[in-house]
Design a protein that fits this description.
421 residues; alpha+beta; 14-stranded antiparallel β-sheet; two-stranded antiparallel sheet
Length: 421
């Protein structure tokens, strides 16, 4: 897939804007099997962790770590939370098709401190960000109309001469994610009709009301597992709690939500345990929780809109519903024939543009009379992950600890750049 190596941008474009994680301890990253490429150290989202596991209210008001609190040599992206900072890196990666070494050179492999080195390409990127911001401010009232992707379109050098091959060749299929509302398109079916048909397709409201929790195990593949298969666990409750634990070769990768706060922990994170702050990532966790028990999906969405031209995904005609989840714009794609949800796209705002996060759902099977997807693929500007459930137990008691703030290992396989308590 295009940018297969490049979208592992994390530490890499970690900074086209030039920076290095502030270390509180050091350790060499383990090497993957010889047949695979070693992962570049990722500078993933990072925020202050809650000071007390019991203090949910206090945790929610903890001051988030800014980019400059975790990394050095940050010059133009100061004053934004680290998780948004890393989403910004994803935007650069997708726009230019760059990976870590494209911006930082080969010396950064296994050496986080070298990310702070200033090299010409990073200084150029700083000027480009400043230039684009100035254009948007002067011409569009500050709206993000012009972005890196406007000119680069996935390549390092913007093209200035028209391509005759493109002009006279058959047009490439349009990305269904790009479809927008049109005054020429019918507004039917309505948002309520789409959602009601979806709820009926997965079992109906009465059946949905009987499913109060589930616990599942399955198979996972992604960059953080060297694209090899590993096990994962998922736990969810209708009251909102949701947790996924991926057992990678270097340690557990955990995303957990207690219906109030959410945390991420993993062997490739620059902060030992990361608490999410309001914004795209947190909106995504909440929406994922709502989709696990769709009876409450209508309450999770606002500003629902229809009226999209006919579009297809994998040759299946779909109905499109656009809405807002938290502060993020989302699109839901429902199979016209079955009514099932087959794709969700969330657009996460960054200081340089919006980053798409796509989840494709398949292989719906009945669990306690309710159809749930046993496969889902997550695609975003930082990589792809594939989940496949193998066993699901409905209506089981789940220990509250499954949804609490994760505890980082005392001796992680890969040392974080910053340790939080």
């Amino acid at each position: 897939m295009k940018f297969e190596a490049g979208r592992i941008l994390t530490a890499g474009l970690c900074l086209a804007l030039g920076l290095s994680p502030l270390y509180s301890q050091t350790a060499a990253a383990p090497k993957p099997p010889a047949a695979t490429k070693p992962p570049a150290p990722k500078a993933s989202p990072a925020t202050a962790s809650p000071s007390s596991a019991a203090g949910k209210a206090a945790a929610a008001t903890d001051k988030p770590l800014m980019a400059e609190d975790v990394f050095t040599n940050v010059k133009v992206l100061r004053g934004i939370p680290v998780n948004q900072f890393m989403e910004t890196m994803g935007f650069f990666s997708a726009s230019l098709g760059y990976n870590c070494t494209n911006c930082h050179g080969n010396a950064v492999a296994g050496n986080w401190e070298r990310y702070a080195d200033d090299i010409p390409v990073k200084n150029t990127s700083r000027r480009m960000v400043t230039m684009v911001n100035a254009i948007n401010k002067a011409q569009f009232g500050g709206a993000q109309v012009i972005t890196c992707y406007t000119c680069h379109r996935g390549g390092p050098t913007p093209k200035s001469i028209p391509s005759l091959l493109e002009q006279y060749s058959e047009a490439s299929p349009e990305d269904p994610n790009d479809v927008e509302r049109s005054s020429r398109a019918s507004s039917a079916p309505s948002a309520d009709d789409m959602l009601n048909r979806y709820l009926n397709a997965i079992g109906g409201e009465q059946k949905l009301a009987t499913l109060t929790s589930f616990a599942g195990t399955g198979h996972y593949e992604g960059f953080d597992s060297y694209h090899g298969g590993v096990k994962f666990d998922i736990y969810a409750k209708a009251s909102g709690e949701h947790s996924v634990n991926i057992h990678t070769q270097n340690g557990d990768q955990v995303t957990t939500y207690d219906a109030h706060n959410a945390w991420i922990m993993g062997p490739d994170k620059p902060v030992s345990v990361l608490q999410l702050v309001p914004g795209g990532d947190m909106d995504g966790v909440k929406l994922e929780s709502a989709l696990a028990f769709p009876a409450k999906l209508k309450q999770a969405l606002t500003r629902m809109r229809t009226g999209f031209p006919t579009t297809t995904i994998d040759d299946k005609a779909v109905d499109v519903l656009e809405a807002t989840a938290g502060a993020s714009r989302v699109k839901l794609f429902f199979d016209k024939e079955s009514g099932l949800l087959i794709r969700m796209v969330r657009f996460s705002k960054t200081v340089v543009g919006s980053v798409p996060v796509q989840v494709d759902y398949a292989d719906y099977r009945e669990v306690a009379g309710v159809k749930i997807p046993f496969q889902w693929n997550l695609t975003w500007t930082d990589g792809q992950s594939m989940f496949s459930l193998e066993d699901v137990k409905p209506n089981v008691a789940i220990d509250a600890a499954k949804f609490a703030k994760p505890v980082a290992p005392a001796k992680p396989a890969v040392a974080p750049a910053k340790i939080t308590k």
